Amino acid sequence: MPISPWDYFVQMDSPNGHFAAIYDDAMEIAMGAPTRGVLKISEKQSGRCIVQVTNANASFVWSSDSAALAVPQWTPKRMQQLLIVSIPHGTIKPINGNYRVLQLASFHEGMVAGVDSPIHRPSTIAIKAA
Question: How confident is the model at residue 112 (pLDDT cuts 50, 70, 90)?
């Protein structure tokens, strides 16, 4: 089941169990609107923080091979862009395009799937991450 863009706290391990992604310090971007917060990705064994993403949204997904994580990030114009975080390097690659509110469902074989704007005029998306 996809993570809601309105969640305030999410903790999810990578499919291989080696990494943990924790979304916290969240607040609504406007009254009743989705949240923005901080996403931290860490190695589980050492606890070392690999990367931190600010202005992130809670609706992130791990790739099925644990090599990457897809996360929406709020822009100054209250739109979202999709970021792909490479694991374990922590490099961040923005994917071209702006979205209203992403609710991500899966990340498999380089494709991120989900819904843009799940409440108002939803639109199914499939975004090539590579």
Answer: very high
